[in-house]
Amino acid sequence: MKKAISLLLFLVMLLGIGAMISVSAADNGIKVGFGQYDFTPADPVNMTGISPRNSVGTLTPEDRLMATVVAISDADGNIALICTVDMLKAYGATTTRQVISKATGVPVSNIHISATHTHSAPSPTESGFADSFNDGFAAAAKQAIADMSPVTTKIGSVDVPLLNHVRHYWRQAGIVNGNNFTTDGAGKCLGSIVKSDSELQIIRFVREDKKDVVMLNWQIHPTSASCLTDYGRAHKQYLSADFIGYTRRYIEAQDNDTLVAYYSGASGNLTPHQLYATMRDPENVPEDTTVFGQRLAEYALTAMKTLKTVNVSGPVKSIELLHKAPDKSMTAISGAELGAICIGDALAFAGHSYEMFSEHGQYVKENSPFEMTFVLTNCNGDRKYIPTIYAFDYPELFKNNPIAYEVSSCLYAQGTGEDLANSMVAMLNVLYK
Fold first, then answer.
1. What is the model's pTM?
2. In a domain, 426, yes or no
3. Is residue 324 part of a domain?
4. Model confidence over 347-386: pLDDT tens digits?
5. Is residue 335 in some structural domain?
6. Which entry of 149, 211, 392, 398 is 20 to 30 Å from 251 by CA?
7. Would you say residue 320 lies in a domain?
8. What ranges in 237-322 are assigned the alpha helix state H?
């Protein structure tokens, strides 16, 4: 949705957030390329996401961990690299972006690396894994640049009901805190009490002589393979891209003229609905993960039949902003880099390193001046939760309360999430002008 913002309002927002901004620009016309790096460790590694544990490989090809790069170039040869990686967070992104920049010549500000947030990934401290990771990612970026081809751009979105839900509600009908779903009495989820952001956004770059590149942006915690279900410790030790791997493979199999990249949106408080309540065999493909991925893919495939063509004529532009986040005691302030990349006035990719709540992501999308905006969380860093302002209203409930961990583990002051969302909107409006 396009909503113009006045210069005066923008200046007020900047004064409020104490931001530092740099902008780079280019001109019109685009080409798009695709590159991928399979970084699934062959040997056992330390894992992260649920608890420290050692991996025992993968169950299926869909579970393999991928680093994916979509390269977008304007007519002047200015390139943006929109990267996504099957990790819990974008650990070490500063170094990885520098390595990619050195290998490709693309400015660091034109490189986004967002994590899909799978909870079945290697630990960032795993030295054997980290040794080759950056070089492999850089090779995928070079592959994407070499693969670039002229495109026609199509965009669209679809509502995906009953696959994600808000984990906890904070105030509802006078009740504070609690599980945010209703069941049929047998454990099957019937729906959320508080509505989540269930919009699946789609960009399809139709290429003249190669497979099309499809970019998906959706909001959810990818935990169907790790902690949502009752597989027990044996299953939790398998590496997995979670349902995301199944979604990518299913779309590519059903529409074999596509290459798919998945980007996680604002999902700090969103969890998958459980699809099955029966006992499972941990040595077989997890039912929840498979079916979940295929259901999301079916929604995407249906929506891809009715995408609209948009004029994306460049330029490629990028912006970086230093967001200042006070801690809970308001005694210290830390800085986190935000970044946005746009392609003309049609497409924008706004990234931040926090685990932003769904409501914040919706605010950014609704107030962005661009025709379609991907909000990329866990992007270019590995910060923790940023809850909504009303989630902090009852601090006495958070102490030793396992279902309020988003607030108890948050390092930042009440209202930081809203300030972050406003900062991202301001950043997008600077790019748009």
1. 0.87
2. yes
3. yes
4. 999 999 999 999 899 999 999 999 999 999 999 999 989 9
5. yes
6. 149
7. yes
8. 243-254, 287-303
